[in-house]
């Protein structure tokens, strides 16, 4: 039964501004390819990388490609060109889906569910329009042998709007079991239904063309069984997942696997006549094989484990990299040269250019995917890293080869146009000979040896594995030493431990005994309802951040000597979140503990190598150009009696001294939170929202309330309302009350509440100075050269040692040495002062000035009319405040000049606790 036997030029395309429809419509595909490569290259610095890459592939790259090529094949199969007036609508649909996908990812990153819903609606609506357009073309065309393919294109297009609905609901982040059910439903409809059906329907006609042979005689009959089985299987699996019926899901996946198996049977029987040549055929064949294998594995996992998010997570790599990307890139490698045109010789030369190293690339990719998809613990972490790099490079090779192929096509088209303009017949090549196009473009004259490429691919992956082992040989049990003369041999056994991160800042268990030479694999479960935790070992193994209620697997490698682990979230290690792995012999006696100090989870953690980036600060230097000094001037208390405020926790970078930028934890984005002011009897209603990445809270010292509810730690994304009545006057501290509090305060989570004393007299100027100290370090991995742009972090070890890096007023060490506080002679000035800590107080003094009024902790210590100062001649030189204490001083300046205010504990002043008041006539 004959079919297409060589690459075909596309149906005539409308020209617009000198560009063909195919090139215009194909732009989003190239955009998404470029974006995907960037994400692959910077995945370690991009949050939520997995779902970002999945949506870039499925919605961005795959969906736009499907829309372009389903339209192209519809025209080719029906021999019916889309009317010119329909072209702009088709391009609108493709670009609309691209825009909708971008909005979807923005909505998910910003956690704006309304935007996620709007973008899902846009994408679903445009795919529905696309499907209706295909059906319209099918109705207006003459009957065609492969009209069944177009029908299934349309059916598949109608799957995606359904999947988009479940995706929008999934963005609400419902708790399990609904999250897991919706995720499986979403994937069954979108990946298995929309993508799987479209790809399978295309390959029924494209595959014989790619391998250059006749179509399998039973292909049409089998396709009438395979495609309905796949459609029904995906719908049954989705329905079973939504209802939580495991047997129904298994039945649906079984039916889908049968359909994919029939498609594979057609491809195998077709390929038996003539094996695929190069990258295109083997990449597509590998993609379908991965689809079948992944569906079967999913069937088994669901049958054994039930409907769980972890099941879908374990299949992400095989689905995305194995099936989706390999199928897409293989098909594009074949279709792009054909659609670029230029005549048969040029097409063949273009195919040869994009096919360079084809078998080698497919071998490397599939071995890397297979290794990377292994369950956690079976592959050492450094080996996984090296394998992922090699696989990413093999994928990325498509970009330069595609560009090279395009250059060949452009050169061929120009040559063909020149020949036609000159009235010459196009150059032709004999079967098996070298075309002039191929010769002129440097395409190879002889076919590469596939066996050599397979061997080279295997060797490449083996080198990657070897490099990973060389970086961390202890993780693979090779060349291991316990630190003594005896070499420890890997046993080949694996010790599996389940560890819990508890709310009381402990790992349970804190000490782990492992038979020496065993591999240790830990399943970390975060039982803390509010805080994010992780587990990091000294050998580099890490779980990554684990949210409340989530879990992760850590492969700690082969245990040959004591190994320390800890939570790397700032402050958690100093709170006792440490673990010690102890190797033991057959009798249970510790091995290789010489020189290692034993301690449990509550023991002192090992010293952290750090470097204080504030050590070389020039305290005479001005703040950075982008820094805006905080206005210390205070407004009078507002007249309303109910004060409403939102405190939004934000984790942002803020400058705290010239050249020192801290990864700060803040209320409303500022290091030192907003100031609240009122009077006795006023009511404050504060809404705390947590937009950070870990648990936070707030404690208002001005509130006389039970801390159980109002001061509880809330998880990221949550909020609470803190309501209190101001019953006593004074200046009160508020701060984050989440452990370790010292770290949270040093990171910037503090502020002031001023409750005016009754009959507080008016003054000419009123200022607020909140003093705090911070302790900073540069993360060890970033120390070597301290490059510009590296942010400091709070150092809990320095907090414990009591050695501040900076002491400052209102969140910056030098701002008021350059943005001076203004005053005039004979004006009365009131300065409120609060010592926020976390550990240091203040002795507030104005050089050259004297205080005639001192108010501390709710009472006047000195005033011109106080009983202890009958003549009004008494004065004060300093306001002494312990941490969390506050008050104010009043003074006037008889002479113009520059008056420096300091913490008279001069060590703190020299760390930045100083500023100036500029007094003019």
TrEMBL record:
InterPro entries: Cu-oxidase-like_N (IPR011707), Cu-oxidase_fam (IPR045087), Cupredoxin (IPR008972), NO2-reductase_Cu (IPR001287). Its EC number is 1.7.2.1. Homotrimer. It is an enzyme of class 1 (oxidoreductase). Residues 425-443 have a biased composition (Low complexity). Belongs to the multicopper oxidase family. It catalyses: nitric oxide + Fe(III)-[cytochrome c] + H2O = Fe(II)-[cytochrome c] + nitrite + 2 H(+). Residues 649-758 form the Plastocyanin-like domain. Residues 1-22, 421-448, 588-618 are annotated as: Disordered. Its cofactor is Cu(2+); Cu(+). Keywords: Copper, Membrane, Metal-binding, Oxidoreductase, Repeat, Transmembrane, Transmembrane helix. The chain crosses the membrane at residues 29-46, 52-70, 91-110, 116-138, 150-171, 191-209, 221-242, 248-268, 280-304, 316-337, 358-379, 385-410, 454-472. It comes from the Bacteria. This is Copper-containing nitrite reductase.
